[in-house]
Amino acid sequence: MATFVVEFEYNVDRAGREHLHGAHTDYLRALTERGVLLLAGPLQDTNGGLLVYEAEDRAGLEDILKAEPYVEGGIVRDVRIRRWAPGKGTWIGAPRPAVA
Q: What angle do CA 56, 40, 32 make, to 5 degrees?
């Protein structure tokens, strides 16, 4: 499994996302229950959100993102995907094997 940091940039404000917010929340909750979504929340200094996923590979993550209600609804202007290898900090509970 690989860890990815994803940044969404929206093309509408919070009010413009409201009609899809319930579906977005339900989708993220289901991903969390499956162990796919590790962390998510709005960015405070810009009109976007930051999400951390664990997926088999980038193609698998892209499939997950295509099904995201905000993406399907056309309100995401830009998606930035970065593969990430967290290794230090208080959120790291146990050593993780290195990713080749």
A: 55
* 8 Å CB contact between 17 and 76: no
Q: 82 to each of 5, 59, 61, 79, 86, how far by Cα in Å?
A: 5, 13, 11, 10, 12
- Encode pLDDT of 56-98 as tens digits: 999 999 999 999 999 999 999 999 999 999 888 887 665 555 5
**Cα 99 from Cα 40, distance rounded (Å):** 23
Q: How far is CA 55 from CA 34, 44, 60, in A?
A: 11, 26, 6
Q: Cα torsion at 4, 81, 55, 14 (round to 10°)? A: 90
